[in-house]
């Protein structure tokens, strides 16, 4: 087998979306333990923004994006559980933003029959994130009260549904009436427009019968962190899982004491998919729930690879709902 030429979304240097370039790249035949995939759809994620900006430093140039799905076209030596023609998806590791990629076979999750590849691509990173947040970071169950910020966003929409499916109660925030309506439709028990709030924690408590919530899921970061802490019950869990509004600055740990023996965690998907078993368990669970209609995923926009900058501009400017995809 010879090398192929792919089109790829390249970050040549750190910067805003204007640095993005679509370039031709050589893709070698898959090596040992790898498969080659013709990519059907690529997921747009905030981690791509942090990596492009240099908030998560990486040597440049690199091919952007961590999430995708497609069909296996070639198999390297030693690969036994993936075959040519298999439909596969993944949600970690750089380089997904291309028409053809080589992937380590043990990072792939099979896509169930009946599930579109673009939905699978859209679900992997955010779906597995929501899955670990409600199952493993905090074991949400009947009666759990959860605060979910940016509830009309990619992770947010899935979090609302997963908390509700477990019998929990959701206080959701979002930045516009239309976004609040999306959160309500997905099952949120109470909604708060945090762009119009001058005391967000008080509003969250009001919406929760005057009590603090058990767990705060906060991927907005800098703008909401203090209010999230103040929304928790004593011994509640603060889950800071991202910084869409900016990273949270250094923090005086005594505040956890003053606010009532709070717990704080800053989780990342890699720690919750570190073994092949855990990756397969989470990925398969999310894809099966989607295929069976137990979980709904809104694809809020599809952009050609050449228009990737517009997708990231929309995401960063809070103009999007649900999940954005790049279609190579
Ligand atoms: P979203 O689709 O949720 O988009 C981000 C949303 O955040 C916006 O739509 C906006 O909603 C809200 N927001 C509030 N303030 C700002 C701001 N200043 N700038 C931009 N957005 C703002 O994105 P994702 O679902 O892809 O990601 C959500 C978060 O989850 C990110 O922080 C991401 O890094 C994190 N994440 C973390 C993972 C982990 O394992 N730790 C894995 C995956 C994602 P509104 O208009 O309603 O305010």
From TrEMBL:
<dbReference type="InterPro" id="IPR047618">
    <property type="entry name" value="QOR-like"/>
</dbReference>
<feature type="domain" description="Enoyl reductase (ER)">
    <location>
        <begin position="15"/>
        <end position="326"/>
    </location>
</feature>
<protein>
    <submittedName>
        <fullName>NADPH2:quinone reductase</fullName>
    </submittedName>
</protein>
<keyword id="KW-0560">Oxidoreductase</keyword>
<dbReference type="GO" id="GO:0070402">
    <property type="term" value="F:NADPH binding"/>
</dbReference>
<keyword id="KW-0521">NADP</keyword>
<dbReference type="InterPro" id="IPR036291">
    <property type="entry name" value="NAD(P)-bd_dom_sf"/>
</dbReference>
<dbReference type="InterPro" id="IPR013154">
    <property type="entry name" value="ADH-like_N"/>
</dbReference>
<dbReference type="Pfam" id="PF08240">
    <property type="entry name" value="ADH_N"/>
</dbReference>
<dbReference type="GO" id="GO:0003960">
    <property type="term" value="F:quinone reductase (NADPH) activity"/>
</dbReference>
<dbReference type="Pfam" id="PF00107">
    <property type="entry name" value="ADH_zinc_N"/>
</dbReference>
<dbReference type="InterPro" id="IPR013149">
    <property type="entry name" value="ADH-like_C"/>
</dbReference>
<dbReference type="InterPro" id="IPR011032">
    <property type="entry name" value="GroES-like_sf"/>
</dbReference>
<dbReference type="GO" id="GO:0035925">
    <property type="term" value="F:mRNA 3'-UTR AU-rich region binding"/>
</dbReference>
<dbReference type="GO" id="GO:0005829">
    <property type="term" value="C:cytosol"/>
</dbReference>
<dbReference type="InterPro" id="IPR020843">
    <property type="entry name" value="ER"/>
</dbReference>
């Amino acid at each position: 087998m010879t090398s192929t030429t792919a089109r790829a979304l390249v970050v040549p240097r750190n910067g805003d979306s204007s640095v993005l370039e679509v370039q031709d790249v050589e893709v070698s035949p898959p090596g040992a333990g790898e498969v080659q995939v013709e990519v059907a759809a690529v997921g747009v994620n905030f981690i791509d923004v942090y990596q492009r900006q240099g908030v998560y430093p990486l040597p440049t140039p690199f091919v952007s994006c961590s999430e995708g799905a497609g069909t296996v076209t070639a198999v390297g030596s030693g690969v036994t559980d993936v075959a040519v023609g298999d439909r596969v998806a993944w949600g970690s590791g750089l380089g997904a933003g291309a028409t053809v990629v080589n992937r380590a076979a043990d990072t792939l999750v099979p896509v169930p029959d009946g599930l579109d590849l673009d939905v699978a691509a859209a679900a992997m990173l955010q779906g597995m994130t929501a899955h670990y947040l409600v199952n493993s970071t905090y074991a949400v169950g009947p009666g759990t009260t959860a605060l979910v910020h940016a509830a009309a966003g990619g992770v947010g929409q899935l979090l609302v549904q997963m908390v509700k499916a477990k019998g929990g109660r959701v206080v959701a925030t979002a930045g516009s009436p239309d976004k609040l309506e999306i959160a309500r439709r997905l099952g949120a028990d109470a909604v708060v427009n945090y762009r119009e709030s001058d005391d967000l924690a008080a509003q969250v408590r009001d919406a929760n019968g005057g009590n603090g919530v058990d767990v705060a899921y906060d991927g907005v970061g800098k703008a909401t962190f203090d209010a999230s802490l103040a929304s928790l019950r004593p011994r509640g869990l603060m889950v800071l899982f991202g910084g869409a509004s900016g990273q949270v600055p250094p923090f005086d740990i005594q505040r956890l004491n003053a606010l009532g023996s709070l717990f704080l965690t800053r989780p990342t998907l890699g720690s919750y998919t570190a073994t092949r078993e855990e990756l397969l368990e989470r990925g398969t669970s999310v894809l099966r729930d989607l295929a069976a209609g137990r979980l709904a995923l809104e694809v809020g926009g599809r952009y050609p690879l050449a228009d990737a900058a517009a997708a990231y501009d929309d995401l960063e400017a809070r103009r999007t709902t649900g999940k954005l995809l790049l279609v190579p």
